[in-house]
Amino acid sequence: MPDASANPDGGAGPAPASSGASSGPEAGPKSAPGPGRTPPAVPAGAGLGGTGSGPGKPQRPRPFGGGILMGRPFGVPVYVAPSWFLVAALITWVFGGQLDRVLPHLGGLRYLIALFFAVAFYASVLVHELAHTVAALRFKLPVRRIQLQFFGGVSEIEREAETPGREFVLAFVGPLLSLVLTGVFYAGMQAVEPGTVPGVLLAGLMVSNLIVAVFNILPGLPLDGGRMLRALIWKLSGRAMTGTVFAAWTGRALAIAVLIGLPLATHAGGFTQESLSGVDSLTDALLAAILAAIIWTGAGNSLRMARLREHLPDLRARTLTRRAVPVPSDTPLSEALRRANDAGARALVVVDGSGGPVSVVRETAIAGVPAHRRPWVAVATLAQDLKEGMRVPAELAGEELLEHLRATPATEYLVVEETGEVYGVLSTGDVERAFVAAMAKPSA
Predict the structure, then answer these.
(1) How many helices and strands in the chain, by DSSP H and E?
(2) Angle, CA of 343, 353 and 356, to the nearest 5°
(3) Within 10 A of 85 (CB to CB), how many other CB atoms are there?
(4) How many other C-beta atoms can be found within 10 angstroms of the C-beta atom of residue 203?
(5) What is the distance between the alpha carbons of residues 272 and 275, in angstroms, rounded to a whole number?
(6) DSSP state for residue 162 in the 8-state scheme
(7) Lower CB density within 10 Å: C or N end of the chain?
(8) What angle is formed at CA 386 by the lines to CA 391 and CA 412, rounded to 5 degrees?
(9) Can you tell me the distance from the alpha carbon of 428 to that of 392, in angstroms, rounded to the nearest whole number?
(10) What is the model's pTM?
């Protein structure tokens, strides 16, 4: 999308809203915002249990939360994505095959037990995510949701930790809880008979939680270990961006190592076929490619979000606002546009008899009226009434501005001074273009 050019009166240069895409670490491309969309945060998750934080590119709010709502522990909604059912079926099939070798007398019952294992494993992942969530809430960081999906889960934390110490704790608690669960399941194994169904289930859960902990503690974004590394570099350098760049490139190196090293380790005998549940080398290579893609994409996404956060304070309502002219509700559109052109303005505000603003004329509605019809169309028919939240203080900037827009989705907002005087109109399209421009700027 094109950048917004500033005019002498502080308004943003004209350009129609366009669309683009940004990719997250675990999902495909997200659609860029269009008119009426507001900017929620975009997560940078970490596969087998991870966190994501910070403001991101505007995108359409997801009304269904990305899956089936399972509950609201600590007030945070937990969703199960459709992709979970695919991996649950895969785990059931693979673990069922293991049970057939260890406990052949189970017969078809082994798949019911394997399904129980799949659900128990993802319950462990949920505990991992809840650890991140509780830490975030403890630090007064809002958490939008937890989602369980194909390669684990992600906690969507809407703001970044304020200090490297908090960032480290926020990332560390997830793997820590997975290690605690590993110990709990190991202790449970000591209390049951080996070679029984409970013994096999507890052993599987112990190993799977150990894998989750070890995988997530690897030092590269977007994994929890990468966030811990980022916090350490942030503390040593004094700059969060330096830590992000270092941890993100470490994450990309880790992605290459996973892509090459996992298949090589399998063939070299580091993992036997049985320990990998009987999967063949092609499956090993596919798994390595998927994991590498998740890590590489997540690292890149972390860099983009960090660049955006660095330039976020530059997004100010006052500098993005278009100059507006007041017009009565029955003014013909052609006359209102003439007045705006004469005044060098690029927005229209409908006022009542006493001159108070009552609505904002929508830019997209103006574009939809042919020139020959404009003398017979009143501006009031093209305006959006000012609802609560559509009045934006001119001094709002950065994340506070985004939070305000997110709370009340609209295409245009009325920008007002502290005295209540109208300053102008803020267009969502101009905010979108400012987002893209901020992400494109090089880091300081």
Answers:
(1) 12, 14
(2) 65
(3) 14
(4) 17
(5) 5
(6) S
(7) C
(8) 70
(9) 12
(10) 0.66
Sign of CA dihedral 81, 85, 87, 88: positive
Within its chain, how far is the Cα of 428 from the centroid? 20
Give the pLDDT mean for 257-273.
Answer: 69
Q: Is 23 helix (H, G, I), strand (E, B) or coil?
A: strand
Cα separation, 86 vs 201, in Å, equals 21
Where do we find the tokens 């830590």?
Answer: 243
Using only the alpha carbons of the chain, give its radius of gyration: 27
| Rounded Cα distance, 114 and 154, in Å | 24
Using the Cα atoms of residue 185, residue 189, residue 190 and residue 192 in order, give the sign of their dihedral: positive
Q: What is the DSSP letter of 341?
A: H
Per-residue pLDDT band for 4 (boundaries 50, 70, 90) equals very low
Structure tokens at 418: 């502290």
Q: Tell me how far CA of residue 111 lies from CA of 82, 94, 99, 278, in angstroms.
A: 20, 9, 9, 16
* The amino acid at 47: G
B/e letters for 337-358, b = 16+ CB within 10 Å, e = fewer, are beebeeeebbbbbbbeeeeebe
Burial of 298 (0-12, 13-18, 19+ CB in 10 A): buried
Burial tier of 264 (Cβ tally within 10 Å: 0-12, 13-18, 19+)? exposed
Token output for 16: 């129609």
Question: In 3D, which of 393, 429, 419, 426 has the Cα closest to residue 324?
Answer: 426
Give CA torsion, residues 21, 25, 26, 28, to 10 deg. 20
- Of all residues in the chain, the percent with pLDDT exceeding 70 is 80
- Calpha distance 435→430 (Å, rounded): 9
pLDDT tens string 174-217: 999 999 999 999 999 999 988 888 999 999 999 999 999 999 99
Q: What b/e sequence results for 205-232 when a residue is b if at least 16 CB atoms lie within 10 Å of its CB, and e otherwise?
A: bbebbbebbebbbbbbbbbbbbbbbbbb
Residue 425, helix vs strand vs coil: strand
Q: Angle at which helices 197-216 and 164-190 pack, to 10 degrees? A: 160
- Please list, in sequence order, all residues whose beta carbon lies within 8 angstroms of the beta carbon of residue 338, skipping any fewer than 6 positions away: none
Classify 426 in phi/psi space as left (phi over 0), alpha (psi -120 to 50) or beta.
beta
Q: Is the peptide bond before 222 cis (omega within 30 degrees of 0)?
A: yes
Helix (H/G/I), strand (E/B), else coil: 6: strand
Q: Which amino acid is at 55?
A: P
